[in-house]
């Protein structure tokens, strides 16, 4: 990396500084505190945001809010620009790369920009702070560090650290591949098992192939047997069918014969029963002869019963009608009275309606009257109180408002007049008093002056004698005294008048309290109330008369209502009887009905008697004159009995009527029987001809079924075995595939083993005893040699320096080998510088292109400083070197001088190009 330019805004003491850095040695010069170190800090800050151990906010210039640093730098031929800003609460960073069109952004954000720069420079901030930027006072750090730290630092500078990291980082890598190897080895372990399994499966397959062959043979043999049995069976099946057909015809014929026999027997039975019935019929016919007359008798008796009942009903109705008519006659009068009273009450209620509101009006008028009376009382009280109050004021004893009013007016006029006179007198007296006071005042002045002067008149300045003076004094004094006396008399009289006026004023004030309007108002109100009262009384009188009429109506209604109650029963009886009569026939109709009924009864009676004498049954004959004791139940029994006979007779007649048709049927059945017997014999002989053996048939059937079962069993066994065989074959195929895939694994495992060997080898190479040791051992003598050369240039009394394996420095002086603790501060700096420059030179073949040194000459005397300058001048190890110093001697070595000055607390940069023009990159 080469630094091209740096801009500082409000960075520490720099308000606004811009510095261009050409290649070669740039010396930044200035007084203590000028702001030199700040420039290097700004470079470090711009690149990595870190510059020293101090905290960041102190970087912002005092009194400012925000700092900005812009650094342009060159890496691998490309220009980059990093900008960082920082305020107390926020920070911003941008990294840009320059191309033909200018700069374009490649990263933003503090962290991202730092990481991006680290990868560009192939250097992190700590390496930068150790190898590139040697801070003020830290120059001797390298040799002052503890051996382990020093080794680490030099390791870092030599790049050994990354080898160490690689050595460490390879452990998990190798571990990863080892576990992969273990995994593959595990896979390979299955190979043997799988091969054994494959052999087993193959053997199993072959065995099953033999078994399936045997099964096939057995199946074929059974198949042939089944075919033979099938033909035998089919022949027998046919015979059986034929046999069955004839047999079933024979069976059905047998059934027909049986039926015919049964029919013949039952027909015979029917014929013998008909003969029995024929003898029964003649008997029954004599039994049912009286039935019709018995029925007629029962009907006649029933009719008679009904007629008697109807007659009874008519008679009772006749009685009811007569009774009700009697009730009507006896209650008609009351019913009419009731009706009239109701009408009267109705008209009275109408009259009453007219006076309905009277009591309420009377009540309200009475309450009005009470209120008005109370009001009048209150007003009278107030009026009499007002009268006595006004009389008290006027000192009178009047009881008429008009008299009080006129007296009040008169007295008020007199009082006002008196007050006016008094006021006048008071004004006069007060005026006189005032003029007397003035007179005395005027008289006092010449009197005073007269007392003072000897012989001159104080007024006219004329000469006066002593006696004249005494005289004048006496006159003046006399006048004053006489005035004073008058004044006293006047004051007394004024006081008296004031009192008198006050009294009159009081009286006037009390007069003002008399207000006739209010009194008149009250009197008027009292009169109105009295008028209202007499009106109310008049109205009440009228209403009271109305009330009496109302009371009379009410009492009349009451007495009428009580009469209604008394005759209410009669009225109701009347209406009930009337209503009942409306539902009954009139007397004439009832009489007519009764007469016709009597006729019917006579007719029926003679008919019954006739029937009884004609009946040839003993029980009934005895009642031929008087049948009142005839038992109707016995009559019913006789009828029922004969009705049953009648039914039986009809049944018997029905059966006997079938006699001829049954005889014909019997004849026909006999013929049928004969014919069917013949058929039966012929069928029987053909059945014997067939010669069917059912037992032999059964045996063949059984054998056939057994063979078929065995066939099914064997074929199912075969298909089961074929299924298992299929599975075995696919298992064999799977195993072969697995074994094939293991071949790939075997190959992969071999490769992996080789790879791990290589990795182990590489790791050993990166290890402490590998390249690291070699690098350290090889660079150590080189660094030592370079350091010796630089050290030699300083020309100390120490002639040589050497580095041991841990880079511990030893110097050789007159007293022989010694350690750094023994040498002076300046010598230590020289050794450190020589060592730092030597490392830089050795590494110059690497990435280091820049070194920044802050005050490297401190502790060196002028001779050594000169030597350092010479070294630096000729030190073309690095393309760019930036040195901060306040040592003007170093100017000599510079290609470019940057002067920093501080004025009024602010740093400014003054560019001063050295003797030789160095081209700007
Ligand atoms: N935040 C800040 N604001 C303003 N000024 C600051 C701030 N921080 C430090 N300074 C001033 O900057 C100056 C330090 O600058 P720097 O360290 O660069 O000086 P120098 O030139 O290196 O001095 P020396 O030769 O003594 O090392 C001091 O004067 C310090 O007071
Ligand atoms: Mg400094």
Word description of this protein:
The chain has 19 helices and 15 strands. By secondary structure, it is α/β, with parallel strands linked by helices. The strands form 3 sheets. The protein has a 6-stranded antiparallel sheet, with helices on one face. The longest helix has 128 residues. Helix 6 packs across helix 14 and helix 8 runs parallel beside helix 9. The chain has 4 domains: 189 residues, Rossmann fold (3-Layer(aba) Sandwich), CATH 3.40.50.300; 256 residues, Helix Hairpins; 171 residues; 106 residues, Helix hairpin bin (Helix Hairpins). The C terminus is likely disordered. The protein is 72% helix and 11% strand. The site of adenosine-5'-triphosphate has 16 residues, from helix 1.
Question: What descriptors fit this protein?
Answer:
single chain; 921 residues; alpha/beta; Rossmann fold; Helix Hairpins; six-stranded mixed sheet; 19 helices; 15 strands; disordered C terminus; binds adenosine-5'-triphosphate; binds magnesium ion
Report a brief summary of the structure:
By secondary structure, the chain is an alpha/beta fold. 72% of the residues lie in helices and 11% in strands.
Helix content: over 70%
Structural class: alpha/beta
Uncertain runs are 913-921
Cα end-to-end separation: 12 Å
Report the β-strand fraction as a percent range: 5-15%
Mean pLDDT: 87
- Find the CATH topology of the largest domain: Helix Hairpins
Order of strands side by side in the largest beta sheet? Answer: 2-1-4-5-6-7
Bound molecules: adenosine-5'-triphosphate, magnesium ion
Radius of gyration: 84 Å
């Amino acid at each position: 990396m080469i630094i091209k330019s740096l801009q500082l805004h409000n960075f520490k003491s720099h308000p606004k500084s811009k510095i261009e850095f050409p290649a070669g040695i740039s010396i930044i010069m200035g007084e203590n505190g000028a702001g030199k170190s700040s420039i290097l800090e700004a470079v470090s800050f711009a690149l990595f945001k870190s510059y020293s151990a101090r905290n960041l906010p102190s970087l912002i210039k005092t009194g400012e809010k925000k700092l900005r640093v812009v650094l342009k730098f060159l890496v691998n031929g490309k220009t980059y620009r990093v900008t960082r800003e920082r305020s107390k609460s926020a920070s911003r960073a941008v990294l840009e790369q320059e191309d033909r069109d200018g700069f374009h952004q490649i990263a933003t954000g503090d962290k991202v920009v730092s990481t991006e720069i680290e990868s560009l420079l192939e250097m992190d901030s700590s390496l930068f702070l150790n190898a590139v930027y040697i801070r003020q006072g830290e120059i001797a750090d390298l040799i002052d560090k503890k051996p382990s730290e020093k080794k680490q630092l030099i390791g870092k500078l030599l790049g050994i650290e990354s080898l160490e990291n690689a050595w460490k980082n390879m452990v998990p890598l190798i571990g990863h591949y080892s576990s992969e190897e273990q995994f593959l080895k595990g896979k390979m372990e299955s190979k043997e098992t799988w091969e054994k399994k494959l052999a087993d499966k193959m053997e199993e397959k072959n065995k099953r192939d033999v078994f399936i062959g045997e099964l096939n043979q057995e199946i074929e043999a059974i198949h042939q047997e089944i075919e033979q049995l099938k033909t035998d069976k089919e022949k027998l099946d046919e015979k059986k069918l034929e046999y069955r057909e004839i047999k079933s015809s024979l069976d059905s014929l047998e059934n027909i014969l049986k039926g015919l026999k049964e029919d013949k027997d039952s027909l015979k039975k029917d014929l013998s029963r008909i003969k029995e019935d024929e003898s029964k019929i003649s008997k029954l016919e004599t039994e049912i002869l009286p039935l019709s007359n018995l029925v007629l008798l029962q009907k006649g008796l029933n009719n008679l019963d009904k007629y008697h009942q109807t007659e009874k009903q008519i008679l009772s109705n006749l009685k009811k009608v007569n009774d009700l008519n009697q009730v009507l006659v006896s209650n008609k009068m009351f019913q009419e009275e009731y009706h009239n009273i109701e009408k009267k009450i109705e008209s009275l209620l109408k009259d009453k309606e007219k006076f309905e509101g009277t009591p309420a009006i009377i009540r309200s008028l009475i309450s009005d009257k009470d209120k008005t009376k109370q009001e009048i009382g209150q007003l009278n009280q107030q009026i009499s109180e007002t009268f006595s109050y006004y009389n008290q004021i006027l000192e009178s004893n009047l009881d008429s408002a008009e008299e009080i009013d006129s007296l009040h007016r008169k007295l008020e006029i007199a009082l006002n007049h008196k007050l006016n006179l008094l006021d006048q007198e008071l004004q006069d007296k007060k005026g006189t008093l005032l003029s007397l006071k003035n007179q005395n005042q005027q008289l006092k002045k010449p009197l005073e002056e007269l007392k003072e002067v000897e012989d001159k008149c104080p007024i006219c300045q004329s000469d006066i004698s002593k006696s004249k003076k005494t005289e004048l004094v006496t006159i003046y004094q006399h006048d004053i005294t006489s005035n004073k006396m008058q004044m006293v008399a006047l004051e007394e009289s004024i006081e008296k008048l004031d009192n008198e006026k006050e009294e009159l004023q009081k009286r006037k004030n009390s007069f003002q309290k008399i207000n006739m309007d209010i009194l008149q108002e009250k009197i008027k109100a009292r009169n109105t109330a009295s008028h209202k009262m007499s009106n109310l009384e008049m109205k009440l009188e009228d209403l009271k008369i109305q009330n009496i009429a109302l009371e009379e109506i009410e009492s009349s209604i009451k007495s009428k209502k009580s009469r209604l109650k008394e005759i209410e029963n009669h009225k109701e009886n009347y209406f009930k009887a009337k209503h009942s009569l409306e539902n009954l026939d009139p007397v004439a109709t009832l009489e007519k009905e009764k007469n016709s009924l009597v006729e019917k009864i006579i007719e029926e009676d003679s008919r019954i008697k006739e029937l009884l004498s004609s009946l040839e049954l003993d029980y009934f004959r005895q009642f031929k004159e008087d049948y009142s004791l005839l038992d109707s139940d016995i009559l019913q029994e006789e009828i029922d009995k004969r009705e049953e006979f009648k039914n039986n007779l009809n049944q018997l007649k029905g059966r006997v009527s079938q006699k001829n048709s049954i005889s014909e049927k019997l004849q026909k059945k006999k013929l049928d029987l004969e014919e069917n017997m013949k058929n039966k014999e012929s069928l029987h002989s053909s059945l014997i001809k067939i010669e069917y053996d059912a037992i032999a048939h059964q045996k063949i059937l059984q054998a056939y079924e057994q063979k078929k079962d065995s066939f099914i069993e064997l074929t199912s066994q075969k298909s089961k075995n074929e299924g298992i065989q299929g599975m075995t074959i696919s298992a064999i195929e799977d195993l072969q595939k697995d074994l094939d895939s293991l071949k790939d694994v075997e190959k992969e495992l071999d490769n992996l083993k080789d790879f791990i060997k290589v990795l182990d080898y590489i790791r050993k190479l990166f290890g402490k005893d590998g390249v690291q040791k070699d690098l350290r051992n090889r660079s150590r003598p080189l660094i030592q040699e370079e350091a010796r050369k630089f050290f030699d240039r300083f020309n100390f009394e120490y002639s040589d320096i050497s580095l041991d394996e841990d880079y511990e420095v030893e110097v050789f002086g007159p007293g022989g080998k010694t350690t750094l603790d023994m040498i002076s501060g300046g010598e230590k700096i020289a050794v450190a510088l020589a060592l730092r420059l030597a490392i830089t030179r050795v590494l110059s073949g690497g990435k280091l292109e820049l070194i920044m040194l802050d005050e490297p000459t401190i502790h060196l005397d002028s001779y050594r400083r000169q030597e350092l300058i010479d070294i630096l001048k000729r030190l073309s190890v690095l393309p760019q070197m930036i040195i901060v110093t306040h040592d003007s001697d170093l100017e000599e070595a510079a290609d470019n001088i940057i002067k920093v000055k501080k004025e009024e607390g602010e740093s400014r940069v003054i560019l001063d190009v050295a003797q030789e023009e160095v081209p700007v990159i």
